[in-house]
Amino acid sequence: MITRNDLCWCKSGKKWKKCCWPNTNKDLNNDKLRERYKKQYQILIKTQDQIDGIRKSCKLAASMLKKSCSMAKEGVTTNEINDFVVSLHKEANAIPAPLGYGDPPFPKAICTSLNDVICHGIPDNIKLKNGDIVNIDITCILNGYYGDCSAMVAIGEISPDKQLVINTSYQCLMNAIDILKPGIMISDIGDIIESYAEKQGCSVVTQFVGHGVGIQFHEAPQVPHHYNNINIPIVEGMTFTIEPMINAGVSEGYIDTKNNWTARTLDGKPSAQWEHTLLITPNGHEILTTA
Ligand code: MF3
Ligand code: CO
Ligand code: CO
């Protein structure tokens, strides 16, 4: 691992701390750093204009998420929530990013993941019922910029293991956000999340990860929620998600062969997830997906 006193990776011959070390408040306008991150890691360090666009998109995603969560009640179908979110996108002149995304093309505008579904649940005509937990995941495109967030809703009375995964995944996300600032490593995020999940007796999904976001849906870097050794220093102007998926039982999942999207826990036990899009600022971070 490179330390502050080693020669800089940009081959300037200067020490890293005197050269491209990220904690300088100038990263946003540092073209050399931007080039380096693109070449070495395929990471897009955003410009001020891009950040302003991404912030607007994230605000919209968060406000749509808030409205759709308050609609999630016993007797409502996930298709009804999906259609409501489609209408909100139309009102805002935005596009739902999931619709038609990937291969096979994702068939709906949002993901709705119930109970043992880890992620990528597809809205359908089944009514939400007492005891369900559901994750609603919304990604919108506004003026070409992406905002991505998700949250959990409990329907009526839920079991203790469902409450545990909801609380643990939320706390994992917030603990990870707390440490975000220029100079920390991508791997620090997984350390914080997995160590907390372990303490709560939960497991961390490794199959799906957070991701750079903003100019595209899924950009570099991958942001694992488990222990890892991705020694990429986080710098000002990066925008990425953290979206820990936390299971009550085993961490492994499988993809439903009926649709090639929906991921379920191998043991059928509950899973929960919360997601924010984050911006790295000169001295810390900003949660972009706040309504
Ligand atoms: N919104 C999800 C994420 O957090 C991705 C969903 S992909 C889709 O990355 F195609 F299912 F929409
Ligand atoms: Co995401
Ligand atoms: Co998402």
Describe this structure in words.
The structure is a single chain. By secondary structure, the protein is an alpha+beta fold. It has helices spanning 31-41, 48-71, 78-91, 160-178, 186-199, and strands at 95-96, 111-114, 117-119, 133-142, 145-154, 203-204, 210-212, 219-223, 239-242, 245-247, 253-255, 263-265, 271-273, 276-280, 285-287. Strand 7 and strand 8 form a beta hairpin. The protein starts with 30 loop residues before the first helix and ends with a strand. Bound molecules: 2-amino-4-trifluoromethylsulfanyl-butyric acid and cobalt (II) ion (CO) (2 copies). 2-amino-4-trifluoromethylsulfanyl-butyric acid is lined by residues 98, 101-102, 106, 111, 120, 137, 139, 148, 241, 243, 275.
Task: Give the SSE map.
Layout: H1 31-41, H2 48-71, H3 78-91, E1 95-96, E2 111-114, E3 117-119, E4 133-142, E5 145-154, H4 160-178, H5 186-199, E6 203-204, E7 210-212, E8 219-223, E9 239-242, E10 245-247, E11 253-255, E12 263-265, E13 271-273, E14 276-280, E15 285-287
Antiparallel strand pairs: 1-4, 2-4, 3-12, 4-5, 6-10, 7-8, 9-14, 10-13, 11-12, 14-15
Helix pairs in contact: 2-3, 4-5
Task: Please supply descriptive tags for the structure shown above.
291 residues, alpha+beta, Creatine Amidinohydrolase, four-stranded antiparallel beta sheet, three-stranded antiparallel beta sheet, 28% helix, binds 2-amino-4-trifluoromethylsulfanyl-butyric acid, binds cobalt (II) ion
